[in-house]
Amino acid sequence: MKLLELLTQTPGIAGREERIRAVIRKEMENSCDEVRSDALGNLIGLKQGSGRGKIMLAGHMDEIGFLVKYIDDKGFIRLQPVGGFDPRTLMGQRVVVHGKEDLLGNLSPSTKPVHILTEEEKKKQLQVKDFFVDLGLPPEQVKEKVEVGDPVTLRQEFARVGNNYSSKAMDDRAGVLVMLEAVKKLQQHPADIYLVATVQEEVGLRGALTSAFGIVPDLGIALDVTLAADYPGGEEPEYVTRLGAGVAIKIMDSASISDHNLVKSLRDIARSENIDHQMEILPRGGTDAGSIQRSQAGVPVATLSVPCRYVHTVNEMVSRKDLEAAINLLSSFLTQTDPLKLKIGTA
Ligand SMILES: [Zn+2]
Asked: pTM for the complete prediction?
């Protein structure tokens, strides 16, 4: 899983995907016939088929992070979040400020140390804007190396934890990995396959929309992580998915309802090939499928999800078995599917 480690450890917040884009470009150049990027920065690889329509795959390459918003006279940095954070998960974290060089920093809430907090102060709910970055440098040096608008990413090493992998940015580098690996396995396939590493998903599925307009696909499949809330604190009906129980075939989330026949086709393939799978209904949250679906005059879509615990923390955890199942189901689907014959949409 060297590639997953490289993908998760390379920085790329929404709007500043240049470093992760360069890594993915190299991978695509090995497996695609053409690779280009568009005006927003989406990276698009084409793997030519036998001329039977176009399938668009989308895995977003941006991760949640911050922008430097303000540097005070003591050299402490305030942050603008880019994407959705739970402030409770930011306690005690380290970040990297991508200024003139990469600078390691400590993230801390602007409160007194716990030893001297009053009972009343302890009850205060922290917000993201309460956090600041301490680079451990004198203010002149901070101002010399860092400017307002520089990106900031969370730092956490990639680790094998039991049977699972844990890191920052599994959302959605795990989806990007599934897309890249599934296509590497392909031999003959009917459709032209467009692999899109999309930008700006975390701020509203923006890159998928423009790239879908550029490609005009016959159908779209988003590859993303989804919640696996199967740990203490959750009720079983609210788990969404279980870690290790296989790739999740999405029925709906709050941004898209998957095409019914496409879901059926994915499920039939998973069943006939004994690929571990589960069906997913996510009450809140969305994937790039929500944007692809609404491009042009409408595009039938589905999402294949990799179950993930602790989403939007630095310890996002995915299962090795689920990754394999997702890669296998996607490559079988691409091998078998002729979008011009598949009964999709309202047909
Ligand atoms: Zn995601």
From this structure: 0.95
317: β partners: 166, 309
Helices (H), 127-189: 139-145, 170-184
Cα distances from 176 to residues 6, 21, 57, 59, 345, in angstroms, run 12, 11, 10, 5, 26
User: For residue 15, what is the DSSP state?
Assistant: T
- For domain 65-155, the CATH architecture is Beta Barrel (2.40)
Q: Write out pLDDT tens, residues 280-320.
A: 999 999 999 999 999 999 999 999 999 999 999 999 999 99
Query: Cα of 258 to ligand 1 centre, how many Å?
Result: 17
CB atoms within 10 A of CB 341: 10
Whether 201 sits among the annotated catalytic residues: the reply is yes
What's the CA gap between 341 and 167, in Å, rounded?
40
Q: Distance, CA 317 to ligand 1 centroid (Å)?
A: 13
The helix-helix angle for 320-336 and 170-184 (nearest 10°) equals 50
What one-character-per-residue DSSP string does 247-305 give? Answer: EEEEEE-SS-B--HHHHHHHHHHHHHTT--EEEEE-SS---THHHHHTSTT---EEEEE
Q: Does residue 66 have a pLDDT over 60?
A: yes
Selecting from 3.40.190.10, 3.40.630.10, 3.40.50.1110, 3.40.605.10, what CATH number does the domain 2-63+168-336 have? 3.40.630.10
**Who's near 191: CB < 8 A, 6+ residues apart?**
49, 52, 53, 54, 55, 218, 334, 337, 338, 339
Q: Which of 17, 63, 181, 201 is catalytic?
A: 201
CA of 174 to the centre of ligand 1 (A): 9
205 C-alpha vs ligand 1 centroid, how far in Å?
Answer: 9
